[in-house]
Design goal:
The chain has about 325 residues and is an alpha/beta fold. Helices cover about 30% and strands about 30% of the residues. Helix 3 crosses helix 4. It starts with a strand and ends with a strand. Bound molecules: NADP nicotinamide-adenine-dinucleotide phosphate (NAP).
Amino acid sequence: MKAFVHEYGELKIKDMNEPFADHGQVAVSIKFAGLNRRDVAVPGRRGDEAGALILGSDGAGVIESIGEGVSEFSIGDEVIINPSLGWYENSEAPPKQFDILGMPDNGTFTESVVLPAEQIEKKPEHLSWDEAGVLALSGLTGYRALFTKGNLQAGDTLFMPGAGSGVATYLIQFAKKAGARVIVTSRSEAKRKQALELGADRALDTNSSWPEELKEETIDIVIDSVGQATFNRSLEVLEKGGRFVTFGATTEDAVELNLRKFFYGQYKLIGSTMGSQEELRDMLTYITEHQIHPVVDQSFSLDEAQSAMEYLSESKQFGKVALRISE
Ligand SMILES: NC(=O)c1ccc[n+]([C@@H]2O[C@H](COP(=O)([O-])OP(=O)(O)OC[C@H]3O[C@@H](n4cnc5c(N)ncnc54)[C@H](OP(=O)(O)O)[C@@H]3O)[C@@H](O)[C@H]2O)c1
């Protein structure tokens, strides 16, 4: 089967052996896969010495075979993959056995993937295949960051820099449906317009003066996954005592923190990452109840996977980038 792999420092399409569904496992024929920033980072983390690994965490498709002992699925079921491996019940932090699909295990940028049945969920019926393919990782991350960790309440004002990010496009929709006011920033005028169309109440230029722009607002919660480029600016506009949730650092990881300002402000800094199976199922219910659709910026064919990775690494997208694997 055809797959997009990282092998000895190179990214390429390679013919790989089709995996076999063993006891408790199912094989999924992938229709669409979704790109995440992690896929762009994985090659650098693996270096030049590692053998072939199929990249990709997100995907949706059809069950093509079933191992012994699996009763909850049938051949032909339309499903999505939960890339949050080994994390089932809600907990304050992921369990020790937690991993993310697509490193160290082979991922979704391929025609067929085999996984334990508990990593598979029914595809929400209101989603098209490309929407289903890009949903799980970002939707789950956003859901946990906003609700479980951020404890967003109706009437809260959420501030979020980097409106073009895949996760941000879920967060805008989730927070609006929960009755929050949503203020975002983007460096791009076109993306600011798209964020407003998606439901954001205000969209500021990332390069504007936020304290000036937001002097009439009370920011209850900040979600900042841009990292070093915006961390301190975001903290500056958060109301004293407010919550600051972070799950990413698209720019750099390290930030300087003025401790005195921080403790006088009595801020709450909260880390989050991915989420449990329980939260994924809650997220699927939430998007079904509210008829929320992922924002798919663009789809590339599997053969164009490298161009898709470059497009994402340049932050050109508004929302998610998909890989079309089979129609
Ligand atoms: N921990 C987890 O489980 C988890 C899960 C998912 C994602 N993440 C992380 O969360 C982050 C967001 O991921 P994503 O895939 O949704 O989005 P992304 O593709 O990393 O986009 C991030 C956004 O950041 C903004 N940005 C980039 N460089 C910037 C700069 N120099 N100054 C200001 N803004 C800048 C851009 O917004 P504009 O173009 O609109 O300005 C861009 O759209 C990533 O770091 C990712 O690794 C973590």
